[in-house]
Amino acid sequence: MQIHRSGSVLLTGAVAVALAVTALPAAHAAPSATAVISEVYGGGGNTGATLTRDFVELANAGSAPLDVSGFSVQYLPGSPSAGSAWQVSGLNGAIAPGGRYLVAQAAGTGGTVALPAADATGAVAMSAASGTVALVSGTEPLSCKSAADCAADTRIVDLVGYGSAVVREGSGPVPGASAAASVSRAASLADTDDNAADLAAGAPSPVNAAGQTSGGQGPGDPGGPTEPGAVRVHDIQGTTRLSPLEGTTVTGVPGVVTAVRTTGSRGFWIQDTAPDADPRTGEALFVYTGSAAPAVKAGDAVLVSGKVAEYYPASGAQSVTQLTAPRTTVLSSGNPLPAPVVLDARSVPGRYVPTAGGGAIDALPLDPSTYALDLYEALEGSRVRIADTRVTGATTAYDEIWVTVKPRENPTRRGGTLYASYEDQNTGRLKVMSLDPARPVPAANVGDVLSGSTTGVLDYASFGGYNVQATELGQVVDKGLRREVTRKQKRGELAVATYNVENLDALDEQAKFDRLAEGVAVNLASPDIVSLEEIQDDNGAVNDGTVASEQTLKRFTDAIVAAGGPRYSWRYVAPENNKDGGEPGGNIRNVFLFNAKRVSFTDRPGGDATTPVSAVDTHRGVRLSASPGRINPASPAWADSRKPLVGEFSFRGKPVFVIGNHFASKGGDQSLHGRYQEPTRSSETKRIQQAAEVNTFVTSLLKADRSARVVTLGDLNDFAFSPTMKELIRGKVLKPLITTLPAGEQYSYVFDGNSQTLDHILTSPGIRRFDYDVVHINAEFADQASDHDPQVVRVRVEGSSHHHGHRR
After folding, report:
1. pLDDT tens for residues 111-154?
2. For residues 422 and 445, is the Cβ–Cβ distance under 8 A?
3. Average pLDDT over residues 246-270
4. Among candidates 577, 601, 578, 580, which has minimal Cα distance to 589?
5. Neighbours of 332 (CB within 10 A)
6. How far apart are CA 574 and CA 699, in angstroms?
7. How far is Cα 291 from Cα 500, in angstroms, rounded to an integer?
8. Which DSSP category does 117 fall into?
9. Is pLDDT of 497 > 90?
């Protein structure tokens, strides 16, 4: 069903898109993930036609409403002459996520069935056999009359050529249009910019924004069947993830309404009270009503007719089987709901998902007794119950929490669930949301308990996978999680910390500066050096060429003083404008703060955005060619990504080299719960290249002086067990300190209910005595200053060869 957010996979941050009306994309030359032309019919009113009018149907494949006010649908004959002109039909209003929008065109003298109420009306007499329809951002008539010229017109959002149309997308127009056949897009609404591949001819099936079909019947309208048809819900769901009846129209499917969704993607769930004996075939189904409010309530016994469709919430997501354009007959009300399936440590299997060798698992037979995701798929839309579950992911800004139904599965010391390896997925995690906007999920931290019974329907979303849409919520029991405060470094210890401060810039509110500053001054106990990630330029996302971050750092260091910390100095290398990735205009970079009363910075000129720093072998030991400097900034590994910042410090007369990093994000990786298994980690390639660059540089330092003290740290956007880390430590030039902690403490970040490590501190063999600590102040809490926890290492620059990973 249509979900109000998009996203995916284990990412650096849980980036979410709120449900809001958005602007349409430009240019059909780029496949549209939102607005598409879903059906075109030019045979209305012709001899042999059933429908009386031509129509164009639009659809929204995105996760937020699309405002089409001021846009137009335009038509051009299939073989335009010199005198041919595009004919324009203006649009108003919006298309709901996953919804349809019907544009009625000219009527003929034939046909007997009217279109459903149109959302917009034109007067264009379209050809039944051949023509071109364009969705255009504006109402000025197009002038292009060739495929190439139209492809260059950025006003065109989507374009469909059918029959023998000269103007079309891709290899050819869609064949088969006639008085009895429209051309329509697949149920997935996929757009590859190849009309012949994306659309096919078939019986016309217009749907308007209210979800009504031809004849004017829609959700709750009278006139539906009064006796069950031949098809049951389990026939629709089938034994795989895809319905064997996809694309077909079914009549009189019986069920009891178990829950209703009145916001976002509107619709309701039905569940059959007479299930079959096959555990693979689901007994529940979502009925999508589009922008129309569902005219049913829980406990209604209904018969639903509609078109079976597979909805993919996002690219790479699993699909949700649903009925669209429904007609619903309510037979009775107040019926008991089917008993919920209990999900607990005994019922949920220990394996996560079957493999398809990296391909789609859609067609694999379900095995719900072996794989957790197969069990959840077989229960898609069904009533489920969880009880007394531990919170493993704090309440988000979208009123969601993650819980585990397996309390003994990879527990962390503070109540989370550890993400231990790619092969050892946590099968007990589920996201919980409330279906009642008036009773959202209360604030909860990791380790709290959702006490009592939570009951709802099991749903699937692109962001987070399977989730419980709760109709009955348990009570949150506060287990007293507290923010940690690390110890103060001793006089002979150099304290070096890393902290991702989440796109901090001088235009942020003072409260954000104050919260982050307290983390440095109090929770981190004022380290001698703090390597910061995600410091933006002085005007943040304003894209005007500003690259300096002096005002940002002045406000931050002032706030640290106000919080009781020292007066920090700073060093950084300003990036080239818009060359380091991150938020456009933000010019994200790494920065060193240092307490000059405890440690000095060795300044050497020559470091800039494009000049590589190198290790210089001298008779007094190794030094940097420039300080601060950047590691090989021209390397393709750093294209559109943050470059490592290298600085030479002196503590008690001894040189210490610090490398601040922020590797490429996990954006673009396939989802753990998606349709492709095992998921491809496409972003990993770049991080491995970046790790190789840092490894090469550290190796050069140690080649000049094998006892050189090097601290490499920052947001590496990858796990301790990842190929990125293996490349970074190649040759044993660095030691990842996260692995020196007990297993239940090896995390600094929480995503989708998984406690994991993206932030790291690594040290060279020359550092033989250290005390390392991840300071948990953010990631496990509903109230966060950043989504990352900082960490600190206290180093004995002089001392014995003994080293350890003691935690406070």
Report:
1. 888 888 899 999 999 999 999 999 999 999 999 999 999 999 99
2. no
3. 92
4. 580
5. 10
6. 26
7. 41
8. P
9. yes
Q: Lowest mean pLDDT: which of 179-193, 425-439, 704-718?
A: 179-193
What letter does residue 739 receive in the DSSP assignment? G
Q: CA of 69: how far to CAs of 24, 95, 116, 736, in Å?
A: 10, 10, 21, 55
Whether 748 and 720 have beta carbons less than 8 Å apart is answered as no
**Residue 671, Cβ density class (10 Å: 0-12 exposed, 13-18 middle, ≥19 buried):** buried
Structure confidence by residue, pLDDT tens digits, 57-90: 999 988 888 889 999 999 999 998 888 999 999 9
Burial of 618 (0-12, 13-18, 19+ CB in 10 A): exposed
Residues in the chain: 808
Residue 133's DSSP bridge partners are 75, 160
pLDDT, mean of residues 659-668 = 95
Q: Are 430 and 467 in contact (CB under 8 A)?
A: yes
Which DSSP category does 523 fall into?
Answer: I
Whole-angstrom Cα distance, residue 808 to residue 791? 13
Nearest to 390 by CA among 454, 346, 439: 454
Six token digits for residue 751:
């995503």
CA dihedral 298, 300, 305, 311 (to 10 degrees): 10
Are the C-beta atoms of residues 597 and 566 closer than 8 Å to each other? Answer: yes
Token readout for 649 is 């410090």
Radius of gyration of the chain (CA): 30
- Which of 210-246 are b and which e, b meaning 16 or more Cβ less than 10 Å from the residue's Cβ? bbbbbeebbbbbeebeeeeeebbbbbbbbbbbbbebb
The pLDDT, as a whole number, for residue 314 is: 85
pTM confidence score = 0.74
Is the bond into 678 cis (omega within 30 degrees of 0)?
yes
